[in-house]
Design a protein that fits this description.
With 663 residues, the chain is an alpha/beta fold. The protein is built from 21 helices and 30 strands. Helix 19 links the parallel strand 29 and strand 30. Helix 5 packs antiparallel against helix 6, helix 5 crosses helix 7 and helix 14 packs across helix 16. It is globular, with a radius of gyration of 24 Å. 54% of the residues are buried. The structure holds adenosine-5'-triphosphate and magnesium ion. Adenosine-5'-triphosphate (ATP) binds next to strand 20, strand 24 and strand 25.
């Protein structure tokens, strides 16, 4: 069934996308605006006049056991404290209050497994399971402040485990299920986790792999880890060490059904989470309770224009990343949303499975990463075109800059030109979305995250710390916000040096390069070190990549600067073509011509290397620092977060071949 036949033809689609590349702005439709939660731009002025009052109003939407005495304690920057004196419980906010208000029968998650299995979990059921799990953790000796590790795939138990920890004040440390057991051990050791919750085995594209046994291989002698809880998910047999290991279902079933939520100070730690490691060794970000929940609930409601009674929301990230923490678990549940949770990959059992899920559950809001959109572009429009996507009304992206062409593809092929796109910029450190359109207010420009969320103050600085426009600079946040990181776990010095040294202790240095355009729109270009200087022209890698991707045969590109005798730096592009196309000299010339046309001759890549795939973090972000290492012939930096090491071997080989040809 082709529900969108006019887009089936590849060439026609290319032509239409090409024409749209010159459209500067996309306004929300009158219909969308009419029904939006926020439609009056005066909201920005309101927040700007008194940011503390604005955030206090957002915090007031939550349930507090004790109201705060002070909104913001800024007496010792950058150690800001929010809602001091206040007490609340995150799991109470995410569960009990909805059930108490008579919404216990609402579906919290439509869970779907790889093989099509389904589980529907209501708020009332989730509350019951969380209370039992919380009691079970208490029974294992977990006390407020004890760290609990969680290493689980995308199964409902991961949400239960997180909320159970939050209920009893035990900060969790979730490790993405795609990481190796060694990475888990390192994080458990560093955070001195007392308990680890893991699984017998996990499904990945039709294969079941053992998890618990792998964990055992590396965890044996770690004395700080006292208990391991095993969820029986796939029926994979595993060894259980007496006195240490217990099955999740057994202890949960045996536990009492009622566990009153612990009233916790607003600044009580909620979790530790490691960043994805695109730039350097991962950092353990610490988030606390009151400010974090305030930030994620408010942004989730307004950025996604959430109507919890009617929307079906799907954040297609993994719960092991901050996007999953803030926008699969805490934001949506605090707002009483109905979500979809998908266990598997976007291409199993076939490349249309995401669109099948959208049709099946009538998803109205989809939030995903540019890396997924680029993969879909490569696979072709016929996959989404085979499904009814008419339930969608809003689309979002996060994680990397999105090339205008991928944005337009998303807008046209998925959104059918009807759905606003919110390109949300934020970080593990910021906890919640910081720069984003408000879908009923903002006219969007493809590739721009547009404007700071109300109450957030962002600027672009030059090297001297002066605000600049229309030129590339350093993105900074000039005012504390409730969901900000409180420190780097056990690395206070790194926290201060990394974020609050360059421009003083009251200005947060983001680490990303950005440009503010004449309309006050932010263009986050990438990491500060993703900037290339060719014959004195400062270029962003993202800009050159976007131009390369505008070439009709290109699916994905990564650009780096390589030392060059003549020009200081020369541009090297690693390029993946669409479908199964093979690249040769004529494609190279075509790409150079496209770049010359879109940016200028000086930006043409000196070298173009064909890549079947690019090195990416396990969260799907391109790791340009590794490409720089191979281009310069250096030893590779930290590769612990690299998803697929084979990719690097191929690229190293191709770089060597090209260099041999040149000499
Ligand atoms: P590490 O800090 O270890 O290198 P990471 O920065 O990739 O890892 P995250 O905190 O998950 O880990 O990612 C945040 C970064 O992702 C931002 O600093 C920015 O570079 C990029 N990013 C996120 N959203 C956007 C967006 N909408 N547009 C452009 N870049 C984005
Ligand atoms: Mg980062």
């Amino acid at each position: 069934m082709a529900t969108h036949p006019e887009l089936v033809s590849g060439e026609e689609l290319e032509r239409e996308l090409g024409a749209l590349l010159d459209v500067e702005r996309f306004e929300p439709s009158a219909e969308f605006r009419e029904r939006a939660l926020l439609k009056d731009p005066a909201i920005y002025e309101e927040a700007e006049r008194d940011p503390e009052a604005w955030w206090a109003k957002q915090a007031g939407e939550l349930h507090w056991f004790r109201r705060w005495d002070r909104v913001l304690d800024d007496s010792n920057p950058p150690f800001y404290r929010w809602f001091t004196g206040g007490q609340l419980n995150v799991s109470y906010n995410c569960l009990d209050r909805h059930v108490e208000a008579g919404r216990g029968g609402r579906v919290a998650f439509h869970w779907r497994g790889e093989e099509g299995e389904e589980r529907e979990i209501t708020y009332a059921q989730l509350l019951e399971e969380v209370q039992r799990a919380a009691n079970a953790l208490k029974g294992l000796g977990v006390r407020p402040g004890d760290v609990v590790g969680i290493y689980l795939p995308m199964i409902p138990e991961v949400v239960v485990a997180m909320l159970a920890c939050a209920r009893i004040g035990a900060p969790h440390n979730v490790v993405f299920g795609g990481f190796s057991a060694e990475a888990v051990r390192e994080r458990m050791e560093f955070s001195e986790a007392k308990v680890l919750i893991t699984v017998d085995g996990a499904a990945r594209k039709g294969r079941t792999t053992p998890v618990k046994d792998r964990v055992d291989e590396v965890m044996g002698d770690l004395t700080t880890l006292q208990r391991i809880v095993v969820v029986r998910s796939k029926g994979v047999p595993c060894g259980m060490r007496a006195g240490r290991d217990v099955y999740y279902d057994e202890i949960v079933e045996a536990a009492a059904a009622v566990c009153p939520p612990e009233p916790l100070d607003a600044e009580h730690p909620l979790y530790i989470l490691y960043t994805s490691g695109s730039t350097a060794k991962p950092k353990g970000i610490l988030h606390t309770t009151g400010g974090y929940l305030t930030g994620v609930a408010a942004t989730h409601r307004y950025v996604f224009d959430l109507k919890p009674e009617s929307d079906v929301y799907w954040c297609a990230a993994d719960v092991g990343w901050v996007t999953g923490h803030s926008y699969i678990v805490y934001g949506p549940l605090a707002n009483g949303a109905t979500s979809v949770m998908w266990e598997g990959a976007p291409d199993y059992p076939n490349r249309g499975v995401w669109w099948e899920n959208i049709e099946r559950y009538h998803v109205s809001i989809l939030y995903c990463a540019p890396t997924a959109i680029r993969a879909c572009v490569k696979w072709g429009a016929e996959w989404p075109n085979g499904h009814d996507l008419s339930s969608l009304r809003l689309l979002g992206t996060v994680g990397e800059p999105i090339n205008p062409k991928a944005w337009l593809w998303y807008h046209k092929v998925i959104g059918h030109e009807r759905c606003p796109i919110v390109d949300t910029w934020w970080q593990t450190e910021t906890g919640a979305i910081m720069i984003t359109p408000l879908p009923g207010i903002t006219a969007t420009k493809p590739g721009s995250a547009t404007q700071p969320f109300p109450g957030v103050k962002a600027e672009v600085y030059n090297e001297r710390g002066e605000g600049v426009r229309d030129t590339q600079g350093l993105l900074v946040l000039r005012r504390p916000w409730p969901s900000m990181l409180r420190t780097l776990y056990k690395e206070q010095e790194r926290f201060l040096a990394g974020y609050f040294e360059r421009f003083g202790r009251e200005t947060y240095l983001v680490g990303d390069a950005a440009r503010l355009d004449e309309d006050g729109y932010f263009w986050v270009i990438g990491r500060v070190d993703d900037v290339v200087n060719v014959s004195g022209h400062r270029l962003s890698t993202a800009e050159v990549e976007s131009a390369i991707v505008a070439h009709p045969e290109v699916a994905e590109a990564a650009v780096i600067g390589q030392h060059d005798e003549d020009t200081g730096q020369a541009i090297v592009a690693f390029v993946t073509l669409q479908g199964d196309l093979e690249g040769g000299e004529s494609e190279r010339e075509g790409i150079r011509a496209t770049v010359a046309e879109r940016i200028g001759k000086f930006a043409r890549p000196k070298r173009i290397i064909w890549a079947d795939d690019l090195p990416k973090t396990r969260s799907g972000k391109i790791m340009r620092r590794l490409l720089r290492d191979i281009a310069e012939g250096r030893e590779l930096g930290d590769v612990t977060t690299l998803r697929d090491p084979v990719v690097m071997d191929q690229l190293e080989q191709r770089v060597k071949e090209l260099q041999a040809q040149e000499t």
